[in-house]
Structure of Division plane positioning ATPase MipZ:
Amino acid sequence: MAGATPHFITFANEKGGTGKSTTAVHSAVALAAAGRRVAALDLDTRQRTLGRYLDNRAATIERTGIDLPMPLHETFDPDGETLDAQIDRLAEGVEILVIDTPGRDDPFARQAMLRADTLVTPINDSFVDLDLIGQVDPETYKIRRPSFYAELVWNSRTQRAKTHGASVDWVVLRNRLQHVEARNMRRVGAALEELSRRVGFRVIPGLGERVIYRELFPKGLTLLDLAQLGEVGIAHIAARQELREMIAGFGIPDGAAPEMEPRTAMAS
């Protein structure tokens, strides 16, 4: 593995409340549980959701003695080393580096987007969130034009192609899918598919709206840990399947969909 370049997965969305950090944490842990060498970097120096989540996880491991999959993780300090230097250091010896960006326009988030091999933009399944990447006609629900964020991503992808000679796989993740308001879901889905053809992203299902995600945060646990703790129910099994399908949808090279069973923790 020495000298190899890891796969960079950057979670980015300028709108908060989309489940971005929760999705990033579950992705990092799921990949670690599948035996991949994973590091995670939190760029949100204000909220530090990913960083605090994984700090809580480390504390739970120490307190209980349970060996849970644990990605190496750090939080970016703008007064410390440069972002590129920290990314390069964390990337040494890992296969995958997960980067969680703030839910706002941020120069470091834009910088991280330029490093992305897979750019994941989680959105809630609503026209409010869809407006971030595309404006919709109020009568026909057809896409009028791409929005500012789609243009930002387009520019980032173009710049990366010029400077690194590499393409970016942009994935729009439909989080918090619900089985109510089915007509609205179809309209949002149709608008996303139309926009994906115009702008060039893939649409995959993400994580559903489940209370369990909020309850897991204080202990830093994920859905993958519940079996070891003896807390798996039917709803949790369904949620684990959602997670499996989401990770498979990322299309990360050199590995099939994770088995979703915890293995030994990564040495940090």
